[in-house]
Specification:
By secondary structure, the protein is mostly helical. The protein contains 27 helices and 2 strands. About 75% of the residues lie in helices and about 0% in strands.
């Protein structure tokens, strides 16, 4: 069993040796030497070698004859090969000799092809480099001539198109390094130009605004002419032309300009005399800078900078000078600057895309509108000249119309003008107050003498006065009123004209204008003229004749009020009977003035009476009265008679309106008599008069009788019966009671309607009795020797006691 395995193993090793590379036979042989049957393996190996040798020998014997034949053929071929070699060598020699010239030609061709390729390469490179050099040269020329926007476009093309095609040459690298420097330089220079532009428009905004406002004024004049022609019936074609002209002007005021210069052509050929407002400024720096910053990718930075700077300029423009209110030129410069500012902004809005937008411009306009209105309110409040206010109003209207033509809302400006209307009215009232006072101070308070027909027509042309009776009279003659009346009436018309001037061009309806004029005229009548009339009535040293003339004057002015109503209706084209139309208060004003004058007449008369009464010098201890009235009272009666004679015998007595109305004269006379009666009673009862004798009462009674004689004489016609005597009835009954000593009747009938002494007040009677009792006591030492004096004293005491009881009874 073991020998079979050994034999099988040796067989395997032998097969492995036969089939394995000799380099790898080591491990196989080692396995043989590691085993115990080394000899047996060697025997088998030798047997195997012998077998292979026998096979090799058999194979050699089999192929030997073919090998010999092959050698023999090979020896034959060697000779032929030597001969062929010689022929090939000769052929090669001949070929080399013949191809030498061809090789030379080929080398020359190769060299030419190389030169041709180099030339083509050079041409190609130059084709890419020459545009770079030409463009760089153009860039330098544009920079030298300060054409920065084309230079920036050239720079962009050079950087992004030409240099990448040219390749990595040294000059290209130098150019590439200079590109950021050039770009920065262009940006800085354009910004410098923009700053110069902003400074320029700041300086020229006044001139720009002035030109724009002149254009608006010319346009308004043209529109007014066209409107007038339309009203006359000849303007259909003119209206069409005016409408198209307006559209041209408005569209020309802010067109979209594609030119780099930014100068607008806003005028037609027919209007060359007024240049376009934007023609005064070259806008090209703005457009260049905008394009440059857009190309540089910094448009937002440029927009923010421009808007920031313009806002600062707007605040400077909107800041008025402290003395702007002194002259109209101050306001004009202020408006010109604002208009110039917004004309520029409107032009920038319409000629650039997005540099400023509508919201930005509207924001600036809102700021400008609020500050302008505030400034105008402040500065106009200092103005006291109505002419300056009127010129300012016209300037504001032109300012508003100018900006309205550029599309800015101006309603607030017109609202402010309506507010200024009240201030203008107040200034007018102050001015007319001075005029009225000057007229009053210069008036002679005498009827106007008229010597000729021309003079009469001149005065009646100033004041609507008609009197058929006066016209029938021959010259010379006198008008019933003084110079005050036509002058005041003319001033009223001038005031109405002044109010009308302010209302023009405010886009108000005729009804609104009419209402405004009527309200202002009412203020003039009720405040200014009324105060001036009161001033004329109340001023010092005004006489009764002057007061009478004032009453006559106000009467005629009152009658002229309906002519003023018609005058206002004619200039406003609003019928006076329009619903809700304001009525003039002239009638009430002149009535009130007339009543004040009448009251002043009464007051002055009473003051004169008081002055005469101050001259009274009664001897209150007189034993008996005199036979005639006191001197002061005689003078007083004479004064009253002359005064009432003046009242009722003014020049032109046949003409009723030239006389003090009878009722006023009667009232004045009654008032004077009542005041005289009351003053005489007060004189009798005043505290300084401690004692009154019966003789003094008798003298007092004589004076009262003189007063009654004056009243009975009828100093003023029109009183019925003894009406005027009633003014002295209280005093008469009191004196009759004391002089007749009829106390029994008084005490018995007191309180009855039929009492004889109904007008005697028991308190007054008691006070007077007390004065008489004191007189009796003073003379008591003499009275004891005279029985009648003692009886009289007892009687006075008894009456005093009864009066006190009577007063106490009625009080309880």
């Amino acid at each position: 069993m073991a020998s079979a395995e050994t034999a099988a193993e040796h067989e395997r090793i032998l097969r492995e040796i036969e089939s394995t590379d000799t380099n790898c036979i080591g491990p196989t042989l080692r396995s043989v030497y590691d085993g115990q049957e080394h000899g047996l393996f060697m025997e088998k190996l030798e047997g195997r070698i012998r077998n292979h040798d026998r096979e090799i020998e058999k194979m050699c014997n089999h192929h030997f004859q073919g090998f010999v034949d092959s050698i023999t053929e090979l020896l034959k071929v060697r000779g032929e090969a030597q001969k062929l070699k010689g022929q090939v060598t000769e052929t090669n020699r001949k070929l080399q000799s013949d191809g030498k010239e061809l090789l030379t030609t080929m080398d020359e061709l190769k060299q030419c092809r190389l030169q041709q390729r180099n030339i083509a390469t050079t041409i190609d490179k130059l084709t890419h480099c020459l545009p770079v050099l030409e463009m760089y040269s153009r860039l330098q020329e544009q920079m030298r001539t300060k054409r920065y926007y084309p230079a920036l476009c050239t720079l962009e093309q050079l950087e992004h198109t030409c240099l990448p095609k040219a390749g990595g040459y040294r000059f290209c690298a130098i150019m590439a390094e200079n590109i950021p420097v050039l770009r920065t330089h262009i940006r800085d220079v354009s910004m410098s130009d923009l700053k110069d532009f902003l400074e320029s428009i700041r300086k020229h905004s006044d001139k720009i605004g002035e030109t724009a406002m002149k254009q608006a004024q010319v346009q308004n004049s043209r529109d007014s002419d066209v409107t007038h022609q339309q009203r006359t019936g000849s303007g259909r074609r003119l209206r069409k032309e005016a409408g198209s002209g307006t559209e041209v002007d408005r569209s020309g005021g802010s067109p979209l300009s594609e030119q780099d210069s930014g100068i607008l052509d806003v005028e037609d050929e027919e209007d060359d005399e007024v240049p376009g407002a934007q023609d005064l400024v070259d806008f090209s720096p703005v457009y260049r800078c905008l394009h440059i910053y857009t190309v540089l990718g910094a448009r937002d930075t440029f927009e923010n900078y421009y808007r920031k700077q313009r806002r600062k300029q707007a605040r400077l423009v909107l800041q008025p000078h402290s003395n702007m209110h002194e002259t109209l030129e101050g306001y004009r410069r202020y408006f010109n600057q604002i208009v110039g500012f917004f004309v520029v902004e409107d032009h920038i809005l319409h000629t650039t895309q997005g540099l400023v937008n509508r919201a930005y411009v509207e924001e600036l306009w809102e700021l400008a509108l609020s500050k302008t209105i505030a400034a105008l309110r402040t500065h106009s409040s200092y103005c006291t000249d109505p002419d300056l206010i009127l010129d300012l109003k016209n300037l504001i209207v032109l300012f508003a119309d100018t900006l309205l033509g550029y599309g800015f809302p101006v309603n607030q400006l017109f609202d402010m003008l309506l507010e200024m209307r009240d201030q203008y009215g107040e200034i007018l009232l102050k001015k007319w107050n001075q005029s009225f006072r000057q007229i009053i101070d210069q008036d002679n308070y005498s009827p106007i003498p008229v010597a000729t027909e021309e003079e009469y027509r001149r005065i009646t042309g100033q004041f609507p006065f008609q009197d058929p009776e006066l016209e029938k009279m021959s010259f010379p003659k006198k008008l019933p009123f003084s110079e005050f009346v036509p002058k005041v009436y003319s001033q009223l018309k001038e005031f109405i004209y002044a109010c009308l001037k302010y209302s023009e061009d405010l886009h108000l309806s005729s009804t609104e204008i009419d209402d405004m004029i009527r309200k202002s005229t009412n203020l003039l009548l009720t405040r200014t003229l009324s105060n001036c009339l009161q001033y004329a009535i109340k001023k010092k040293n005004v006489g009764l004749a002057e007061l009478v003339q004032i009453i006559v004057n106000t009467t005629h002015l009152e009658a002229s009020c309906h002519y003023l109503e018609e005058f206002i209706s004619n200039i406003t084209s609003v019928p006076p009977d329009t619903v809700n139309a304001t009525k003039l208060y002239g009638t009430s004003t002149f009535k009130d003035a007339r009543h004040s004058a009448e009251e002043e007449i009464y007051t002055n008369l009473n003051l004169k009476i008081d002055q005469f009464l101050q001259l009274a010098d009664y001897d209150w201890m007189a034993t008996q009265g005199g036979g005639q009235a006191s001197d002061y009272l005689i003078d007083l009666i004479a004064f009253l008679c002359s005064t009432f004679a003046v009242f009722t015998h003014l020049p032109g007595s046949p003409i009723e309106h030239a006389r003090l109305p009878g009722k006023v004269a009667q009232t004045a006379c009654m008032s004077a008599c009542k005041h005289l009666s009351t003053s005489l009673l007060q004189l009798l009862l005043e505290a300084d008069v401690r004692q009154v004798s019966m003789g003094a009462l008798q003298q007092f009674n004589v004076d009262v009788k003189e007063c009654e004689r004056f009243a009975r004489a009828g100093p003023v016609p029109g009183f019925q019966g003894d009406t005027l005597l009633l003014a002295f009835i209280d005093l008469r009954q009191l004196l009759d009671l004391f002089t007749q000593w009829d106390w029994s009747t008084y005490l018995a009938d007191y309180g009855r309607p039929t009492c004889k002494y109904l007008r005697v007040n028991p308190h007054v009677a008691l006070a007077l009795l007390e004065k008489m009792k004191d007189t009796s006591r003073k003379n008591n030492m003499f009275a004891q020797f005279r029985k009648n004096e003692r009886d009289k004293q007892k009687l006075i005491d008894t009456v005093v006691k009864q009066l006190r009881n009577l007063i106490a009874t009625h009080q309880s």
